[in-house]
Amino acid sequence: MSLSLPENPSKSLSDSWPLSMLFALALMFSAVTANAANLPDFTGLVKDNAGAVVNISTTQEISRQGGQMPFSERQLEEMPEFFRRFFGGPDSPFGGGTPGQPDSVQSMGSGFIVSKDGYVLTNNHVVEGADEILVRLSDRRELSAEVVGTDPRSDLAVLKISNGDDLPVVRIGDSEKLEPGEWVFAIGSPFGFDYTVTAGVVSAVGRALPSENYVPFIQTDVAINPGNSGGPLFNLDGKVIGINSQIYTRTGGFMGVSFAVPINQAMNVFEQIRDQGSVSRGWLGVLIQEVSRDLAESFGLSRPRGALVAEVMPDSPAAGADLKPGDIILEFNGQNINLSSDLPPRVGQTPVGETATLTVLRAGERIKVDVTIGRLPSPDDRAGAPAPEPSEEPAAAPLGLSVKSLPSALKQSADIDHGVLVDQVAPGPALDAGVRPNDVITELDRKEVRSVEDFREIASELPEDKAISVRVVRQGRALYLVIKP
On the chain, which terminus has fewer CB atoms closer than 10 Å, C or N? Predict the structure, then answer.
């Protein structure tokens, strides 16, 4: 055998390095291929479950008031782009219209069938105010449906398909077992594109949102957009573990953060509406706040945790159990309360009349307190309740607030030069918005509040049908809240 050397050996050696690079790239490609093989394949899961997912379209007739149509921002988000363009505000091409003349407006969302006889779960805001509801199945059938009942507090609605018989249904999972990092996927109709599939992972569980006190949301990075609302969130077993409900956005579209109502809470609401026609929640009757690091140190806690009782409402279950302001609730029926937002969902899920055991830190000692859970008052109950006795500053009554002049010591310690101090908060819009005793109100309806007299004047002139902003300073931090009528 003869061996011939290259004419330029150095060139041959230098040319050998691309081969090593190719070898390394081949190894990397093999690793990527192996990793890709481990990623979930949703194909079979989608085929098995798409039949029980429905598109919900609604029609609502609304008379124009002064040329404008009174839609909420959330309702507008659920409209197809075409309708939002024409009915979304003063800049729409047909913005004027004829006052007093009815207009037919459509919106859309998603839902899923939970029983063969046609019960459907969706979001309340998808069907709110609808005069006609059509449910479209994956086989293109369109069936009419009626609202059985709604629960605005959890933004859920139960529909019943007319003449429903042997319909495909989803399988229900257990949202309590859900953990961050799990793969999940959604099927819905974003922007009207039926049966769109998006996937991602669970970002967090038990997430509390400012406007929702009784729902421990599932946070995901699944792409959710207008039209997905009310649709199911599945796990890799093909079981529904949540109902897609909200997104965090600054643009109106998906920005990587979406929220779903846990299916365990949703099914509890469904069963109550189906069997009783309404939803009742447990009620403790306390106003609570977060335990800061400084508060934890002053109360003798090694770290911030629990829910600090700021106020015990009169004639409430908490008052009957002798809970006191300054108590820190550490456990509820054996479940740890790490954040104050952990408490309301657990109380709300407790059956009315059941006795719950609380672990409370009081004066540096842990004690057990038994509370018989009451029924959370509904907005109708509040509306029918007798008006509170007038206080020294009755002008705040429309908001359920009693305020007083800002103490000089507080002005200095909190570095505030104007405002009024909230003394009491009665059940009503301000309480629902999150206003609490000891908040300092510095602005109401975008008007500066410098004294009790200013507050009285502004409060007396507030519109009855418009949400207003209120700026409060709480524990040295300023935030805006929205008080809705």
Answer: N
